[in-house]
Amino acid sequence: MSREAVAVESAVVADPAEFDRLDSRVAFGRALGKIAENDPQVMAVVSDYGRRLALDVLRSKLPGSVVQCGIAEQNQVEVASALANEGFHVFAPSYAPFITARVLDQVRVNLGMMESPVVLVGLGAGYHAGILGPSHMALEDLACMRSIPGLTVVAPATNTELACALAELARNPRPAYVRITQAPAGDPALPSGDFELGLCRVLADDAPGRMADVAIATCGSIASRALAAAQLLRGRGLSCRVVTVGTIKPLDQHVVELLANARLDVTVEEHSVVGGLGGLLAEELLDRGATPGLLRLGAPDGYPEADEQARLLERAGLTPEGIAASVLARLG
């Protein structure tokens, strides 16, 4: 973790447990406000949604640092790219499906081909906004963004990890997408630990350096459910390894090594089973010649009806009990 990221974490996240319980939108605004104390080039370009992002601290520290584009996400990316090309450290937040799928051509041209160092921030990813219907569910965003050459794709598991990622991207601007998910109320908390862009984090390992029965790779806030599922599997006598992949692209190849040394690999994500973390690791494992069994758990390949996040996750089998049951069924 960079010195700047550590400084942001210690200032914004004096109590990581409390910070991680915040609404992720508030955590995002607080982190940008703290970064702005030492970085006068920070800007946020928003599309109507900005009023919900706790950006008052940023505005007070750097007047004129928040640009409102209205409900026009394509224009948001164009404005953000122009400002980034002039040397500003620009973050462009919006609902995750709108800042990825709706603006894919603008992202492809500006961030991909022209390499404009804009950090796109996808809020409410996965099922978090599911009560608003499938138009607001970001279930294809990782598939879209990881296909853009040169784009860094980040999926923090907690607000603390989010603050560290934002600080690093402000210090070293580059074309990037940060995917923000938030676990439903009542989900188990993740243990705190160091976060560094580009590196995975091992949450649990019953067989370090040895063959594990099950290796689970996960990303985003659903990591807490994957960790709880591993505990259930241990109760059935299985050794488990749990790895959270905070950076989807470029991928830490240590993830592939950890998964190659297991009887069964499992990916758990609040994203479609098509094109997300599961698809990425399938590609990487095959490229490396490592072929353990792979079970991809995520959102089914279809558009669900509107519902609350917790119920959508349950319907997709993405509870600790559902994950464990799927693993046991696969192992026979």
Overview of this structure, please?
The protein has two domains: 3-179, 3-Layer(aba) Sandwich (Rossmann fold), CATH 3.40.50.970; 201-331, Rossmann fold, CATH 3.40.50. The protein is built from 13 helices and twelve strands. It has helices spanning 3-12, 16-20, 24-35, 56-61, 73-85, 104-113, 141-145, 159-171, 223-234, 253-260, 277-287, 309-315, 320-331, and strands spanning 42-46, 66-68, 89-95, 118-123, 152-154, 176-179, 201-205, 212-218, 240-244, 247-249, 262-272, 293-299. The strands form two sheets. It has a seven-stranded mixed β-sheet, sandwiched between helices. Strands 7-9-8-11-12 form a five-stranded mixed β-sheet, sandwiched between helices. α1 crosses α8 (159-171), α5 packs parallel to α6 and α9 packs across α13 (320-331). The N and C termini lie far apart (41 Å). The mean pLDDT is 94.
What is the H-and-E element order? HHHEHEHEHEHEHEEEHEEHEHEHH
What distance separates the N and C termini? Answer: 41 Å
- β-strand percent reads 15-25%
Number of strands: 12
| Uncertain spans | none
The side-by-side strand order for the widest beta sheet comes to 2-1-3-4-6-5-10
CATH architecture of the largest domain: 3-Layer(aba) Sandwich
Text of the CATH class of the largest domain? Alpha Beta
- The shape is globular
Quote the average pLDDT. 94
The figure for the number of domains is 2
CATH overall fold name of the largest domain: Rossmann fold
Report the radius of gyration as a whole number of Å: 19 Å
The CATH superfamily of the largest domain is known as Thiamin diphosphate (ThDP)-binding fold, Pyr/PP domains
Largest sheet: 7 strands, mixed
Summing up helix and strand content along with how strands pair, one would put the structural category as alpha/beta
Helix residue percentage: 25-40%
Protein name: Transketolase-like pyrimidine-binding domain-containing protein
InterPro entries: PDH/Transketolase (IPR051157), THDP-binding (IPR029061), Transketo_C/PFOR_II (IPR009014), Transketolase-like_Pyr-bd (IPR005475), Transketolase_C (IPR033248)
Domain Transketolase-like pyrimidine-binding: 22-187
Pfam family, one: Transket_pyr
